[in-house]
Design goal:
The chain is α/β, with parallel strands linked by helices and 174 residues long. It has a single domain, classed as Collagenase (Catalytic Domain). It contains four helices and eight strands. A six-stranded mixed beta sheet has the order 1-7-8-4-2-3, covered by helices on one side. A two-stranded antiparallel sheet has the order 5-6. Helix 1 crosses helix 3. About 8% of the residues have low confidence.
């Protein structure tokens, strides 16, 4: 699972950019979810949890127009997603104009891996993690119980915690 950015007008190669990019407004971010009847409720619940945990500072609204969305969520037909230079089961690509600048769009890809398909808890854990990246949390946590840990370990133990909230508060100056 990872996050990389394409800086528009600069190099087209994605690079790891750290926790330095933020949305201009975190209210009413338009989210497109690729139609997948089995998982839409899980994904919407994950967005709701991030909204609640940030006390409404992030608010997400849904759209059927992928090309007019701020964040799009898609399921890959591949078991493993090539996330720049890493194989992953989830990947978030963030587009921004310049280093340390405004996030313009985030695209979340979730693999069709049997690891993901076998459990709603795992889908939920991976999407929570990737939404964290889409919100601007770039770096992974060293805490195995953190939702932003590099790998999905025990999906029932990995949670959004104080570390993630601290990083968002610092990034958005709340």
């Amino acid at each position: 699972m990872g996050i990389f950015a394409i800086f528009l007008g600069k190099s087209e190669a994605p690079v790891d950019f750290g926790d330095r990019h933020a949305w201009k407004s975190t209210r009413n971010l338009k989210v497109y979810i690729c139609p997948d009847i089995k998982r839409i409720s899980i994904i919407k619940h994950a967005f709701l949890v991030w909204s609640e945990i940030t006390e409404g500072k992030f608010k997400f609204v849904y759209t059927d127009d992928k090309y007019n969305s701020d964040i799009d969520v898609n399921f890959s037909q591949n078991y493993i997603i090539r996330c720049y230079d890493t194989n992953a089961i989830g990947c978030t690509l963030v587009k921004s104009y310049a280093r340390g600048g405004e996030i313009l769009h985030a695209s979340i890809q979730i693999s069709s891996s049997p690891f993901i398909k076998e459990s709603s808890d795992k889908v939920y854990t991976v999407i929570l993690h990737e939404i964290g990246h889409a919100m601007g949390i770039a770096k992974h946590s060293q805490n195995r119980n953190s939702i932003m840990y590099t790998f999905t370990t025990d999906s029932k133990k990995q949670k959004i915690g104080s570390e993630e909230l601290y990083r968002l508060k610092k990034l958005y100056k709340w």
